[in-house]
Write the structure tokens for this entry.
Amino acid sequence: MSTQPSVLITGASSGIGATYADRFARRGHDLVLVARDQSRMEQLAERLRAEHGVAIDILRADLVDRTQLAQVEARLRDDSRIGILINNAGASKAGAFGDLPPDTISALVDLNVTAVARLASAAASRFVREQGGAIVNIGSVLGIAHEIGSPLYGATKAFVLMLSQTLQRELGPGGVYVQAVLPAATATEIWDRSGRNVDELPPMMSVDELVDAALVGFDRREAITLPLLPDTEQWDAYDAARKAMLVHFSGVHPAERYRKAG
Ligand SMILES: NC(=O)C1=CN([C@@H]2O[C@H](COP(=O)(O)OP(=O)(O)OC[C@H]3O[C@@H](n4cnc5c(N)ncnc54)[C@H](OP(=O)(O)O)[C@@H]3O)[C@@H](O)[C@H]2O)C=CC1
Ligand SMILES: CC(=O)[C@H](N)C(=O)O
């Protein structure tokens, strides 16, 4: 049994989540793996137990199913060994917004928004009492770049960024670390799963390099981690421009430019 906090990782059966599992196992953390594919998680767990001697639980759950989501929430609330949540499970969908079937829209929001929020809430409720813990929310550069990618997916990732920033303000002073990770295109199964041929796309970052970069930000307790951004001052300038508008986000009368000419 590790003396370090256990790590609960959603979307742990492949891609970024599976790579986080590898990295935290290497660091000696026990793990709780969450996804739908039991077999893939069992194979991953078997390898990591053998290589690193850590304890690994598998909690199979479809996070779009509220009953199964609630089971993962309960684990986060009740298992005091868990000190880190990697809020990673997510999906994308190619195609024009107008062509998306209603159920597809609901499923994407249920996974990328509702599940992320409810799991963060379940973890936060205990982390606040314990005055510690870490929540890593996996967003995307598409959450701040409407010029790229699919509209609905980007909107769900804008939610993840905003949720992370509001939680940083609310939970940070109480000792809870919240990190928003904003990957750009990364070589995982998300492309095939969302109906896009990765071979027809420009070269992209490997999942190993992405997660290793995200962990550099994690170890630095960085709030917003943008693995591809070379200069942190670019984000700082972006955020400063946003903050400069705050003074105009409360008032009694519309700005002059919206007042009808006399
Ligand atoms: N790859 C990229 O280019 C980028 C990815 N991201 C984000 O990274 C995160 C991980 O994606 P990535 O690793 O790339 O993609 P993958 O498709 O490789 O992994 C997605 C993971 O989520 C799990 N998952 C999917 N649907 C459900 C569900 N209904 N319930 C529970 N688990 C589910 C899958 O497991 P299973 O099928 O077994 O349930 C899988 O483990 C996502 O949030 C994605 O939006 C952000 C920016 C870029
Ligand atoms: C870059 C992403 O966030 C995502 N993989 C997508 O483009 O669908």
About this structure: The mean pLDDT is 97. The helical segments are 15-26, 38-52, 66-78, 102-130, 151-171, 190-193, 207-219, 232-245. The radius of gyration is 19 Å. DSSP finds eight helices and seven strands in the chain.
